[in-house]
Amino acid sequence: MASSVNSIVAVAQNIFANHGSTLLNGLLIVSTIGGQSLIRRLTFTCPCSYPLNVIHSAVFILGPSMALFIIGIMLNSTVWRLVHGCMFSYYRCFLAHNFCKMEIAKQCKNETVLNYYKESQSFDMMSGNGSYCPACICEMDGSDSSYLDAESQIIAWFILIIFGVGTFLVLCLHRMFDKYTLVQRQYVETYKSIEAQKFDQIARATASTIAEQNARAFFLQKDWSKRDWDWVSGIPEINNPMFARLRLIAAEKTHQTMITPLQLWSNHKGYRIIQPQVASVVDETMTTQGGYLDGID
Asked: Which residue ranges run through the membrane (predicted)?
């Protein structure tokens, strides 16, 4: 009995090892189609008015896809590596009142709800050019409702097919125009993964060593003054006046990047904190760019 169970487990392991990706893709396809059909039967109700059934079908088929697309972007480390810090110190905050003028913002108009509803672009289309109340549109017979239901389903399937074929073509073109072969691409991806793991391990070890040195330098002193506690009580990477002065002092004494108040205290213990003069304060953006250009030269 035990040998039979072990053989079954071994066969299952071999199948998953050799065809794991194929089985996973098939499971995802079956679950997607089954879930879509189940959701359609439980929740899909066609809107009765003509323009809304088209919008409803588009939202029904594109909504889950856009949600999964946004989740995929959020979980993709490459996207965050490209955008992380790209806007820092280069652009100022856009002022909302520059983009919300009184003459173009609908919510700023001083009108009644009825007048605003009548001025809507879809009012004539929903009310048949004002011949009947929009609330009476839903009173249709079964044939009209079935026709609109079928129309919505056809539009939804067309969108699904177009997106599926487009995704397949983009994937094929991306792989065909790749500068690496399949085996070489697998090696490159393996190297990138291992490199990221090793970099993370070494970064953690280095950060742990430096943090331990700074913490030991502070706690082994044992005769702390109020100024020492003021140094290490700042909030890291926050533009408050106390930490801004500490960063300015650190920039005058060293070219290393200071991250936390404890690093500043450890590297500049005993340095008197002086309120910087207005003329001596340099924009951090220009300072960073100047140092970068000097490094290039």
From this structure: 20-39, 51-75, 154-173
Residues 6 or more apart whose CB falls under 8 angstroms from that of 263 comprise 210, 214
Q: Which residue has the tokens 């048949």?
A: 128
* Distance separating alpha carbons of residues 229 and 242, to the nearest angstrom: 13
Q: What is the mean pLDDT of each run of 10 residues along the chain (297 residues)?
A: 67 71 74 66 57 70 73 72 57 39 41 55 59 46 65 78 84 81 86 91 90 82 76 60 56 55 65 39 43 44
Using DSSP's 3-state secondary structure scheme, residue 20 falls into: helix
pTM above 0.85? no
Lookup result for tokens 């009310």:
127
Geometric angle at alpha carbon 88, from 199 and 274, rounded to 5°:
95
- Identify the three-state secondary structure at position 271: coil
Helical H runs in the chain? 2-43, 50-75, 77-83, 113-118, 123-127, 142-176, 182-219, 226-232, 241-253, 261-267, 284-296
Residue 286: φ, ψ to 5°:
-65, -35
* DSSP for 99-116, written as a single string: T--TTT-GGG----HHHH
